[in-house]
Amino acid sequence: MIKHNTWVKASALIALSILTVVAVFCAGILAIIDAPTISGYYTGSCLYHVMYHFYPYTDAFFTAVVLCTIAIIALFIFLMAAAGHKKGKEGISVGALDRVYLEIYLLVAGGAEFLLGAGAYLMIWWALDMTEYLWLAALFGAMMVAVLMLTMMTIAIRIKSGTFWRSTLMGAIVRVIWKGMKWCIRILRMIPSVWRGVLIVSGVFAFYILLSIRTFNYHAPFAVLLWFVYPVAVLALVVVYLYQFKQLRLAGKELAGGNLDYKVDTKYMFIDMKSHAENLNQVGDAAAFAANERLKSERFRTELITNVSHDIKTPLTALISYIDLMKREGLQSENAQEYLAVLDRQSQRLKKLTDDLVEASKAASGTLPVNCMKMNLAEFLDQCAAEYEDVLQKCDLQIVMGQSADVHIWADGRHIWRVFDNIFSNIRKYAMPGTRVYVDSYCYDGNVTVMVRNISKAQLNISPDELMERFVRGDASRSEAEGSGLGLSIATSLMKLQNGTFDIFINGDMFTASVTIPQYVG
């Protein structure tokens, strides 16, 4: 844009300065010609005789004043809008002069304006006898306008860039005082609470004694006034301190009464009170979290018992029924082989369920042994894909391996295989035929994340949290001989034992399993 061009801005600044001088000159001519008092005062001077010759052009000078004023306003708006912009740079550019403390800049600019103004006044005064000095007066006037405009532009740049307060000397002094106060507060925090209180009270009384001596010995008006105000201020602080202490007592009472959602407003509290209030708020949050976790655990235990008893009852009922049939029909019956196949299938199902229950219990309690070792992630994922490639092809599923991170992980080979075996087993059972299964891995912050995505053939009408924490299985799946519904719970516990995480994400019908494993650092 044209406003980013430095030469254009410099030209606009020069033009504004010249136009301002021209407008003032034309207005001065009109004033000398039209005002009788001024005309009489200057009558006989060399400057008056020169300007009197311009009398026939009064209308032209008036038009020039109007046009110059319009141009000055337009150039002023342009320069203020263009201030801080440079060609080829985004945002506001702050120059070296814009970093000078504003008070110092204003002091220097004010001095320059004073000197230039004095020079212009002298040149105009001398122009009464010799009109040649009028050009020097115009030059000084133009320089005054330029200095004033540059000052306004640097103020605009500071405001636009958000550095106005930081670029002032007062702001620097306030920042130094604030840092000193924070340093003093940091030192006070290192002192034990009891001694800190003793130090503060001693300081209050010491200051009051010195103030009293100053008041009664020297009768200083300010000291006398402060002698009355100081106790009131101390009393106000004590009242505020007691009020904050009352808030802490009320918070403790509410938490003790079971109101774990009660929070203390710590916005305007003193340091120690604020710290104690924040601790109480954290205690409330921790207690509420523990209560919620306990409720979840109780609900999980109830649902686990209900669902597992249902799954145990089904194969047990089948075993009892087919054993009774074999007793009545005998081993020589033509249906004996069919009965034995059902007995074998149901007994294997019961064994699988029992093994998963034991493994889930050990994994959740942390009693399973964990032997982590260095493992190549790419080789491990290739083995998983090769193990399930034929099985997934029979289900009309195509596995797509992304570019695996060439890193090593720190994991227990048996446990990590159990996690991925559960993931691919669920994909085989619940993924929509004719779709693809994507496996990708990423490295960040010393961890490796493997993400496995697939499309579910059934509508996913359950949240990921419920799916992870509950014994969840669809009614149709209960008729299957394999699977216990505990796979996700076991996978979560196994990853915790290996200092990793197991998460699932649901986006419509897109199911994503995410396994995060610590990266091996040699």
Quick rundown:
It is built from 15 helices and seven strands. With 522 residues, the protein is α+β, with helices and mostly antiparallel strands.
Strand order of the largest sheet: 2-4-5-7-6
Low-confidence stretches: 35-44, 470-481
Overall mean confidence score, pLDDT: 79
Largest sheet: 5 strands, mixed
- The assigned structural class equals alpha+beta
SSE topology sketch:
Layout: H1 6-34, H2 36-42, H3 46-52, H4 58-82, H5 102-127, H6 133-161, H7 169-190, H8 193-218, H9 221-256, H10 271-329, H11 336-365, E1 373-376, H12 377-394, E2 398-401, E3 408-411, H13 413-430, E4 436-444, E5 447-455, H14 464-469, H15 487-497, E6 501-507, E7 510-518
Parallel strand pairs: 2-4
Antiparallel strand pairs: 1-3, 4-5, 5-7, 6-7
Helix pairs in contact: 1-2, 1-4, 1-6, 4-6, 5-6, 8-9, 9-10, 10-11, 11-15, 12-13, 13-15
Write structural notes for this entry.
- This protein is an alpha+beta fold.
- The chain has helices spanning about 5-35, 35-40, 45-50, 60-80, 100-125, 135-160, 170-190, 195-220, 220-255, 270-330, 335-365, 375-395, 415-430, 465-470, 485-495, and strands at about 375, 400, 410, 435-445, 445-455, 500-505, 510-520.
- The strands form 2 sheets. A 5-stranded mixed beta sheet has the order 2-4-5-7-6. Strands 1-3 form a two-stranded antiparallel ribbon.
- Helix 9 (about 220-255) packs parallel to helix 10 (about 270-330), helix 10 runs antiparallel to helix 11 (about 335-365) and helix 12 runs parallel beside helix 13 (about 415-430).
